[in-house]
Amino acid sequence: MSDSRDPVEARADSGRDLYEVSTWEPRSLLDSLSVFVYSAGVSALRLFVVVLALAILASQFVLGGLGAVTDPIVGTFTLLSAVPALGLAAYVWYADVTSSEPLELLVGTFALGVLFAGFAGVVNTVVSVSLESLGLMFWGTQILYFFLVVGPVEETVKLLAVRLYAYRTSKFDAVVDGAVYGAMAGLGFATIENAIYIAGQTQGIADTFNLVLAGTGITAVRALAGPGHVIYSAFAGYYLGLAKFNPDRAGPIVVKGLIIATLVHALYNTLSGYLPGIVADATGIPWFVAFFGFILVYDGVFGLLLIRKISRYRRAYHEATDEAPDGEPADLAEFDG
């Protein structure tokens, strides 16, 4: 890695004062004011983003029917739909071989994942409605919509949930932490997305039996879709962690993570809309069975790739620290998976 210092600083005597020649630190009142204005501006921007996200979420409760999740039955279905995604996020947390992440950071990242989902919802809706009003929403443009809008936007806002809070703390002290917090952001996103779908599908159903019947079906579908969000954002989060510890190449590394997450996400959206139906028509099996099989294969493949990436980090960690997992001899660490 090249020396990032100015030539004067690199060659000068260590005792020479180079303030505002090639180095800088706050010394004067103006310096302190500059630091304050910058810090206050950054904090205000973060606060604005969070307040805006809260406003969007509140509008979804008031105008978008999301308030239906306060119904005990709908709320229960929403919680049940998040269980598979929660299980996967818990595994990613468990697989972190470094220090355990604080509960407040995990919960905070989950909450930001819930909040920032509203940004994606607004962008996706505006683009979708615009395409439909222009008569441009057909299968070809829908695929482009998944790859150029839905995937990039949703993965970016989930990564923002990590970047805005956990990433900035001293507890984010390992590359693999990015996968952990990315998984939590994905869990938050999946939870609120499931709530919106379930509330929308059950809105206006007053009869308890019909409500349970409708809720069971949509909950089962959303429970299968949820783990994907954890997988996508855990990939992107891992590369965010890699970027933090490789600042000279941070930009391209983050972009690589977002590209991977976007492609896996958009490909899922594309295939899930067509492939189960084709398989069901060709084989005569029920659509839901074909959809369930597709989810198992798709999430299984990319879930295993994620586990493999985390396992590679675990092996490298044990080798670097000369420490094998669970008390095994160090020379057996390479077999850890």
Note down, in words, how this protein is organized:
The structure is a single chain. The protein is mainly α. It has helices at 7-11, 29-62, 72-81, 83-95, 103-133, 139-163, 177-202, 208-244, 250-283, 287-320. The chain contains ten helices and no strands. It starts with 6 loop residues before the first helix and ends in a 17-residue tail after the last helix.
Total strands: the figure is 0
Instruction: State the helix count.
Output: 10
Oligomer: single chain
Major sheet: size, sense and barrel closure?
A: none
Strand content: under 5%
- Shape, per Cα inertia axes: globular
Structural class: mainly alpha
How far apart are the termini? 32 Å
Short description:
The chain is mainly α. 74% of the residues lie in helices and 0% in strands.
Sum up the structure in keywords.
337 residues; mainly alpha
Topology:
Blueprint: H1 7-11, H2 29-62, H3 72-81, H4 83-95, H5 103-133, H6 139-163, H7 177-202, H8 208-244, H9 250-283, H10 287-320
